[in-house]
Design brief:
This protein has helices spanning 7-11, 72-83, 95-100, 176-183, 211-233, 292-319, 327-357; strands spanning 15-19, 26-30, 47-48, 64-65, 103-138, 141-171, 192-193, 203-205, 238-266, 272-278, 284-286. By secondary structure, the protein is an alpha+beta fold. α6 (292-319) packs antiparallel against α7. It folds into 3 domains: 7-119 and 155-286, no CATH class; 127-154, no CATH class; 292-363.
């Protein structure tokens, strides 16, 4: 019968395994941490994870850890700059709130080494220029103008490949591709060997894809690297329709932890809206939602001012019967009322459109 994983002994650090039922992420957290919300979705409390090694995609500690180069103060500044681009921000977006909710999170990824033996075929593209002349009428005279157009000549190529490749990236998480798209790549050359001290006081996300499961993605990375080498060998400018029959030997898998920060703000309904930052590069991504309540309040204020000027304009028109010059004030009042009414409506529509534009992002969390 399988026994539960002894995470503290395995990772050589006092920790406990917990999981979020909302996003299905599993984490290692310090043993001293009590009941906390999931740092990457805030959708649920983290519950103790009772699982044996066979139930886990991978339970071993990482070989490499990429350290934080962005300090928390710098991270907060970048997050505040990100939120500055949200019009009519929710009132919960305050520096003290964002700073108090800031969490350090490590996400895993795989690096794969391997020897490749392959036959390949592709179409190699070579750029060349075509010069033509166009006639155009200018100042009543026809003039000839030289036009250069770049085209590509495609030629078939075949060959054999024998190479060793290091550090081909593969996903250790199902959402890995989306995470890279949102927060960019990190400089893995700066990674250091794992030590327990490197992950203290951080949430360490556990892989949900094993090396075997991630191999289908890894082989695509090998193919991409091989295609680029074949392009260079053919001295081509481009390459397409690359096909190969590879044999991979001496596979070596390395787990690498990548540093991130997470924080959140509450929208009008009290729902958490996540913000993430790459702990090495400082790239920020997050949920952008404006406050419709603030937009509605602003629209009501504008409508009230518009109504006031409209009433004053009507009074001016009545007075104009006895004092004709006052009619000008009535016209000005109507114009001011129209401006305030339009401004309020535009702000409300802009806020609504802004939220709709960013609605699709709300379903994504690390």
């Amino acid at each position: 019968m399988s026994q539960p994983v002894d995470w503290s002994a395995l990772w050589n650090i006092e920790c406990q395994a917990v999981a979020c039922e909302h996003c299905n992420n599993a984490y290692l957290v310090p043993s001293s941490v009590g009941v906390v919300r999931c740092p990457t979705c805030q959708g649920d409390d983290l519950d103790p994870l009772e699982a044996d090694a066979e139930q886990m995609a991978y339970s071993q500690p990482p070989e490499l850890v990429l350290g934080y180069t962005i300090e928390e103060t710098n991270a907060l500044q970048r997050i505040l700059k990100f939120t500055d681009n949200i019009p009519l921000r929710p009132k919960d977006i305050q520096p003290q709130n964002l700073r108090g909710r800031l969490r350090r999170v490590y996400l895993p990824m795989w690096l794969v080494d391997g020897d490749i033996q392959a036959t390949w075929q592709a179409e190699a593209g070579y750029f060349y220029e075509v010069v033509s002349h166009r006639e155009q009428l200018a100042s009543g005279q026809w003039q000839s103008r030289e036009v250069k157009e770049r085209r590509t000549r495609w030629e078939p190529r075949v060959g054999r490949l024998a190479r060793h490749y290091d550090n081909v990236i593969a996903p250790a998480l199902e959402r890995f591709g989306r995470i890279r798209q949102a927060l960019g790549d990190s400089d893995i050359s700066k990674a250091a060997a794992y030590t327990p001290e490197a992950v203290q006081s951080a949430f360490v996300c556990l892989p949900d894809r094993s090396p075997d499961d991630a191999w289908a993605e890894a082989i695509k990375g090998f193919q991409s690297s091989a295609a680029e080498e074949c392009r260079k060998a053919a001295e081509a400018d481009e390459i397409r329709e690359y096909r190969w029959s590879p044999e991979v030997e001496k596979r070596n898998w390395t787990q690498l932890l990548i540093p991130f920060y997470s924080t959140y703000y509450l929208d009008d309904e009290g729902e958490p809206r996540m913000i993430y930052i790459n702990g090495q590069t400082g790239q920020v991504w997050g949920h952008r939602q404006t406050s419709l309540r603030r937009a509605q309040t602003a629209a009501l204020i504008s409508a009230g001012v518009a109504l006031l000027f409209f009433v004053l304009s009507l009074l001016a028109f009545f007075l104009a019967v006895a004092v004709p010059p006052v009619v000008a004030l009535g016209v000005i009042g109507l114009l001011v009322a129209a401006v305030f009414g339009i401004v309020g409506l535009v702000r409300l529509l802009h806020a609504s459109q802004f939220n709709k534009k960013n609605q699709a992002d709300l379903g994504f969390t690390l």
